[in-house]
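re: the backbone from monday

yeah here it is again, tokenized this time
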């Protein structure tokens, strides 16, 4: 009976996690700002842009990459926003079990990627022939850019 109850509780929790959808959230700490597309209050992050506040230097992080990535492997991340296409040089990180793969790369402060995202409706990423599309509705790129530049955002 306990086993049945435990399985029922596990399934209820599992199905509840699917009910939560990813959304854009702008978070700041004393030193960093993060614009994250993920499920709030969880480790579920699909895509994020971040910076050290006041530096105006940005990074992009994309998680759960499909394909044969190796730790430290360099790869070009293609980003498409509307009819604009960009490329970001990234470096792969792979967890010890080889199950979770992510990429992170620097975006120059003069790159038009963030401005395009500020006005776009969706952002498409392609890495190793694997493509994802992210909606840009409610993505506060203006707030991220202002915070990263050192402006106070209320």
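seq for it, each position gets an aa:
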């Amino acid at each position: 009976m306990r086993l049945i109850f435990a399985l029922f509780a596990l399934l209820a929790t599992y199905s509840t996690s699917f009910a939560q959808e990813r959304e854009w959230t702008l978070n700041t700490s004393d030193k960093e700002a993060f614009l994250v597309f993920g499920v709030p209050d969880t480790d579920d992050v699909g895509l994020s842009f971040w910076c050290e506040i006041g530096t105006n230097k940005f990074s992009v992080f994309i998680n759960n990459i499909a394909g044969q990535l190796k730790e430290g492997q360099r790869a070009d991340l293609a980003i498409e926003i509307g009819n604009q296409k960009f490329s970001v040089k990234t470096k792969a990180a792979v967890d010890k079990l080889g199950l979770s793969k992510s990429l992170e790369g620097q975006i120059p402060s003069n790159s038009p990627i963030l401005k395009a995202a500020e006005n776009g409706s969706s952002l498409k990423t392609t890495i190793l022939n694997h493509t994802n599309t992210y909606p840009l509705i409610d993505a506060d790129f203006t707030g991220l850019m202002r915070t990263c530049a050192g402006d106070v955002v209320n």
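Residues 1-17 have pLDDT under 50 and may be disordered. Strands lie at 23-28, 32-38, 45-52, 58-63, 74-81, 84-94, 101-107, 122-127, 130-135.
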